[in-house]
Records
---
Amino acid sequence: MRWSQWMSERARATEGREGAARVQERAEMEPETRETEEPEGGQPEAAESVDWVALADALQELYAAETPARCIQSALAAAAEHLGASFLLVLLLDQEERSLTAAHLAEIDHMRVSKVIAALDQDPAELVLPVDGERARILRSDGPTVTGDFRALFAGAISAEQCEEAQRVLHIRTVISLPLAARGRRLGIASLWYRRPSPGLKPARKLVEHLALALWTHQAEDRARQYGNIDPETWVFNRRYLFEAGRRELYRARKHERPLSLAVLDLVDIGRFEEEYGPTLAAKVLRSVAVRLAGAASPIDVVARYEDGRFVVLLPETDRAGAEEQVTRLIEELGEDPDLLPVKDGPEMRIAAAVASFPEDGASLEALIRSAKGSLPQPEDKGESQEQAAGGVTA
């Protein structure tokens, strides 16, 4: 995901939450009987009375749900109570948008889910359904598809005979399937199963519309949290995440009396390199160094960009001797890497590093970083040895 796209999604994610506040206002304007609609594969629906205010209250629960699974569970409850639906099946697209899954059902504790699993003799949460055939058509459609059964939804995964038997056991007479779409993005398919003929289409569309927006909001917030911890230029953690992780590790080290160290690494010549070769190649150098640092770090280490050409490596469970040994090895590996710089026969890129350990060098992350930065070579000392750099390591 491009950084600009993420920023846009992060700003728009809050709009989904605002949707809940508008539900009540819209509901009061809805008529008690609905206009006639012509769905695909079905006849115009019959007029039906709906308590729109009660439905609006139920729709607000979708936006208040803490997880997508809880959101879908709230939608299932609303479909049963206010739409008279026997079941709501939600199939969500995977990241590659090549298959649909109902894995979230494993997190939903609802009697209706148990009944469907028993009737199908198959847990839908375990199914991975390719986007093809009728599923692809529903996903790309702009309106509801009304049929008398749900065989097409499970084609290739559950036999037609088993679907027919399940439909008989569950007394399903009408299936309304709609695409889950919000903000121009297709999220999956929502399928409402009814025990009566000609159920209302407008309440179904209203429920699915808000379910899609609530799910989109969850996905956007998840992406915001994921990419909000990443520095867009170097692809390692950013300064904000460094301080979050640092505070957690300091608390753990203090509580359990465990060692904790960090290293500050400084690309001494990055400013001169940028002046000579431009910001694009300088950014490639930063990313190249960051990726190699992250690749060499252990699973519990945290590699983060601190500022400009400076990185911090947080080293839990590591004392000063271990930190100095690890950083020396990292510096040597970077210095011997022939592909570190994007230009051949260019200027050397010196990397200086210094370590600090808790508690001897500081009791907070800020104090530890300040201590390590104080041990880095000063401008007039750059290029000197580790001993001459007061604890720094220079390659």
---
Amino acid sequence: MAKNELARKRRRGNASVMKATSKTRKRSSKKSPATGNKGKRMAAAEGLAIKTVLVPTDFSENSFKGIAAALSVARKFKAGIILLHVIEPRMYPAEFGYLAMEDDRLSELARAQLKELAKSAGLGARLEKTLVRSGQAYTEITAAARGLKADLIVLSTQGFTGLKRALLGSTAERVVRHARCPVLVAR
């Protein structure tokens, strides 16, 4: 008997909580004069302050989706965009293990491609700077975001699943796990 009474009280308590939350939802869904017709979406966006958007790119077709998403966010929040390309060092066999070497020519080509990409994407005055870094992609992206005090990272993903994801890894997933600022992943 005691168990049944306890279960009944719990159900009654949950019902009163459900009624309270539905009343709260009804009140919050009303349009406020400050937000106009956009309602809750604008109210949520007003609390977010984005001044700098970091956009890593590998110059693939998918990375253009990330740039388009970043441009949309930057226009909405009147933020600047920083384009970043990370060159993973090449490993050459050496006498005792492997030797990592940077290629200055690759860095120069990447800088030129970033500038061309900024022009073709129509970033214009929103573009604050372009950066080329060398190292592991997710490490360099998160370090750049911290160093530049980026408010948001916008990147794209290949969308691999299963075995391909396990073998290739996911830079986007690692950035999401290690970044200190919000990350928007475009797919």
---
Amino acid sequence: MPIFLYTWNKPVQVKELSNIIAVSGGYFHTVALKSDETVWTWGDNYYGQLGTGTNDNSNVPVQMLVVGNVIKIACGGGHTICLRTDGSVWTCGSNYDGQLGNGDNSDSNVPVLVSSMSGIVTAIAGGLWHTIAMRSDGTIWTWGNNYDGQLGNGTYERMNVPVQIEDFNLSQTMSKIYGYVDSNGHYVDTVKLVTI
């Protein structure tokens, strides 16, 4: 699937990439997943959201340092989220609000493993400064900014590790969680419930 980006008033194809199966857009960066399960990023890298081990911006796609086997990608405002085939979640970029989920609040320009989350994750999504994951048991886990209660945990405190939304299980009614550009090119920024 070719990728087209809009500059001013017309789309231009990202020619350096092929075999793309998913894309996601952050505030000022873009992430693409290739069919070989590698992740490619470009754009702003102030927080390290490109995951290349530097904070240098890139106007061409560069391969993220996450080990392969990535099956889903998502972006927040200044962070990137990857889901691997083993069900683990890896993040990089801005971490002021704990949106990387690794237990601290330091930005990271290399992907870090989301901590304190047992079980297999099957879906990921990114808000502006928070992150969402759904486990195979249908439970929803959130972390990061919570100024408006977007973590759904009954508080307004930001969290730098995943917290489960209590009494909320989507195993019977959820088929997908969106927070990325879908295969039809539509960007979905919220959780979308689909009855099975």
